[in-house]
């Protein structure tokens, strides 16, 4: 950084912002794009809170230059976005759709020309519907279709991508989409969920290897959502429930990635879908781990709930976001220290962190006064600084997200953006948090200027 101090990283700390294709692009049936599982899921009555979908989203497909200007004006060093698999390979296999590839080539060029590094994630939950009709992630073949897609798209995108991430949050995708059924593809089946867990892990490893082959010298990683689980009541059964939730959500993905094993009791539960060589493939070495973190979760033992674990609301009196999530920055510190202590202290980038809040209060200029979001960012960035001081190999932070977007099952009812999206016109209006984050990034000092966020 420009002004070195004893408590800042010696290497440049990367500031960034993140988005995902389905949540912002729109144009779901244009330029040869095929349907995804989210296109199908959003068409089902009652699946999305406000009945919305991603058909327009933020219209990023047409307005990407405007969004890149906002990113450049933030002063960040990197922009993490995802490629839509069905946009570039409509059936999930076979030929590339050149019109889709060309869109991403234009986007990459625009980002790089703005002085920002393009960091590309190759899967953010939008599986081609044609592959879901063949069984989706519970079908082992999907991992190999994915690996072929990764190799072909990475080759087609050329040398303009600064870093690649193979997957985004396979743990959330497997559990919410295949066990709880509240995300696409809307499956509620424990055995299907277990198969999806393993095949997503296998796909990650295969994808990492294909990326290395296609783009030698380009750093490669993957992204996990890592959360702590807290028993909501005293008692051994509730402590056991929290431990199992941690195993199913965190360790079921960390252990294959870093150790080439599954933790008990999942190793036995997954035995029927693991084939020879799979665990070695899952352990394909990565150059960095992306960590998405928002909150910590409270659980109870409940025999009627899936796997005997029930998620419950945080205790009364704690500060929460509009999602109902506890604001608990110590949870981020715990996650990062765990990676240091238990998983070899890998290079880590916080690839998503942010909060949803209502946009009711306005400043004198008419922009959203999202002071609660500013305080959230302040608290979590201070926790990140504490993790770095504790020896965690933390190398960057990406805010979630640039613009209010389609927030999955919550539709447009939850707003995470640093920039307001005006629904009627799709106009972008920077919020107070956008300016606060910009000022932090431009200060050139981390973490000395974190208190500036609250001013």
Describe the structure.
The chain is α/β, with parallel strands linked by helices and 455 residues long. The chain has one domain (14-454): Glycosidases (TIM Barrel). The chain has 15 helices and 13 strands. It has helices at 21-24, 37-42, 60-74, 85-88, 98-113, 129-132, 141-157, 170-178, 190-214, 236-259, 266-269, 278-282, 330-342, 371-389, 432-443, and strands spanning 14-18, 78-82, 117-121, 163-168, 220-225, 229-231, 288-292, 297-301, 309-312, 348-352, 394-400, 419-421, 428-430. Strands 1-2-3-4-5-7-10-11 form an 8-stranded parallel barrel, surrounded by 5 helices. Strand 12 and strand 13 form a beta hairpin. It is globular.
Strand-pairing-aware structural class: alpha/beta
The N- to C-terminal Cα distance equals 23 Å
CA radius of gyration is: 21 Å
Low-confidence stretches are 1-6
Strand content: 5-15%
Spell the H/E element sequence: EHHHEHHEHHEHHEEHHHEEEHEHEEEH
Question: Largest sheet, if any?
Answer: 8 strands, parallel, barrel
Please give the domain count: 1
Which oligomerization state do the chains in this entry correspond to?
single chain
Kindly report the name of the CATH homologous superfamily.
Glycosidases
The whole-number mean of residue pLDDT values reads 95
Write the CATH architecture name. Answer: Alpha-Beta Barrel
CATH fold description = TIM Barrel
State the strand order across the main sheet. Answer: 1-2-3-4-5-7-10-11
CATH C-level name: Alpha Beta
Number of helices: 15
Which range best describes the helical content: under 10%, 10-25%, 25-40%, 40-55%, 55-70% or over 70%? 25-40%
């Amino acid at each position: 950084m420009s002004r070195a101090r004893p408590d800042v990283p010696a290497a440049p700390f990367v500031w960034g912002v993140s988005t995902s294709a389905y949540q912002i692009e729109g144009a779901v049936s244009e330029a040869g794009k095929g349907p995804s599982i989210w296109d199908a899921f959003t068409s089902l009555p009652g699946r999305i809170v406000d009945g919305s979908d991603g058909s327009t989203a933020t219209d990023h497909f047409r307005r990407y230059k405007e969004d890149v200007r906002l990113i450049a004006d933030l002063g960040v060093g990197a922009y993490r976005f995802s490629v839509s698999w069905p946009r570039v390979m409509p059936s999930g296999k076979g030929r590339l759709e050149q019109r889709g590839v060309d869109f991403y080539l234009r986007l990459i060029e625009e980002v790089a020309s703005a002085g920002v590094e393009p960091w590309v994630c190759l899967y953010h939950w939008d599986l081609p519907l044609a592959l879901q009709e063949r069984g989706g992630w519970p079908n082992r073949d999907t991992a190999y279709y994915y690996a072929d897609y990764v190799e072909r798209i990475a080759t087609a995108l050329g040398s303009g991508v600064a870093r690649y991430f193979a997957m985004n949050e396979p743990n959330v995708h497997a559990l919410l989409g295949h066990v709880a059924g509240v995300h696409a593809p809307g499956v509620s089946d424990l055995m299907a969920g277990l198969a999806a867990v393993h095949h997503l892990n296998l796909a990650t490893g295969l994808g990492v290897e294909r990326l290395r082959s296609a783009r030698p010298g380009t750093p490669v990683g993957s992204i996990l959502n890592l959360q702590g689980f807290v028993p909501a009541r005293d008692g051994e059964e509730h402590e056991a429930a929290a431990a199992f939730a941690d195993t199913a959500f965190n360790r079921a993905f960390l252990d294959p990635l870093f150790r080439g094993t599954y933790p008990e009791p999942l190793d036995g539960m997954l035995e029927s879908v693991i084939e020879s060589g799979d665990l070695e493939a899952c352990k394909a070495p990565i150059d960095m781990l992306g960590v998405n973190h928002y909150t910590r979760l409270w659980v109870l033992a409940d025999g009627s709930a899936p796997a005997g674990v029930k998620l419950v609301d945080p205790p009364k009196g704690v500060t929460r976001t509009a999602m109902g999530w506890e604001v608990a920055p110590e949870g981020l510190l715990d996650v990062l220290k765990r990676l240091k202590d238990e998983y070899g202290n890998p290079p880590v980038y916080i690839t998503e962190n942010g909060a949803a809040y209502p946009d009711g209060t306005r400043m004198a200029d008419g922009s959203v006064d999202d002071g609660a979001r500013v305080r959230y960012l302040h608290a979590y960035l201070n926790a990140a600084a504490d993790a770095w001081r504790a020896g965690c190999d933390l190398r960057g932070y990406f805010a979630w997200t640039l613009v209010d977007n389609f927030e999955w099952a919550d539709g447009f009812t939850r707003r995470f953006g640093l920039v307001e999206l005006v629904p009627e016109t799709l106009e972008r209006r920077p919020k107070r948090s956008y300016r606060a984050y910009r000022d932090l990034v431009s200060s050139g000092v981390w973490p000395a200027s974190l208190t500036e966020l609250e001013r």
